[in-house]
Amino acid sequence: MRRTPAPTAAETGPTLTEARQAVRKWVGEYNATLRKRKWWNRNDLLDALFLEAALHEGVIERNHEIFGSKPGHTPIHVVGTPTIYLPRPEQQPSIGDWFIAQATYKDTEGHARPHVLAFFRSPGQPFKLAVATPLHWGRRMPKPRLDADGYITDMDNDVARAVAQEYLNFWNNEKKEGASGYRLAKDSYSRKAFPAVNKGAYVAFEGHGSVFGFRTADGGSFFLFGMVNNPKHVNQVLSEALVVPQGSRTIQEVGADWFS
Fold first, then answer.
1. Backbone angles phi, psi at 228, to 5 degrees
2. What one-character DSSP code corresponds to residue 144?
3. In what order do the strands lie in the sheet containing 128-134?
4. Among the listed residues 207, 81, 85, the one whose alpha carbon sits nearest the alpha carbon of residue 141
5. Taking the model in full, what pTM does it have?
């Protein structure tokens, strides 16, 4: 009798319940890690919690210690039940699976705010945080376009690449804005932050992490990703939560977070 191969992690994917459990588990481990002395100097602790842009936040904490600054990370105490944005199992990448969560907790200023986070896991590994940012005051997560089973609809990868490239174009000031075919909205966080940041120790972003996202209910696109410097001299991490309305070439910011 011919055997049917067992499904891989990417073919099964997490359920909504498993994703919520993963968020609670990660938050508990994160808070426990923050209580450990100089956790930012422990690569094993960083690797257990973070990857991609979020991993670099731990690296930057080492700079805080060198210059006598207080740690920038604070404990997370989630209020209510997180909202989960989950792709269909067959839409998960072959290297693992991911989901986006919206959770309300205090920001670094002590204000309760909705945050949007992306978690990823490799086969056989727990979920780790890839990118996170609070939502801007007065902004909300867009409603996703859901399929008949309640899964989010896959994002437009061509638009995702163009939007991420436009942020590199803007921040690195190497190409004319709009070279990607898209432009930042006039009221975006980046437009306001760049003049002040560029006068300090800003180092041009070398690239960005994975782009997580989905189609919105009105036909537009939502994207979440983090931007980092060269790993040899990481000074900043910029996390972005963005919306491109249907038929538009303007990138609207739902949330953004500068960590340095």
1. -135, 160
2. B
3. 79-85, 97-106, 112-121, 128-134
4. 85
5. 0.92
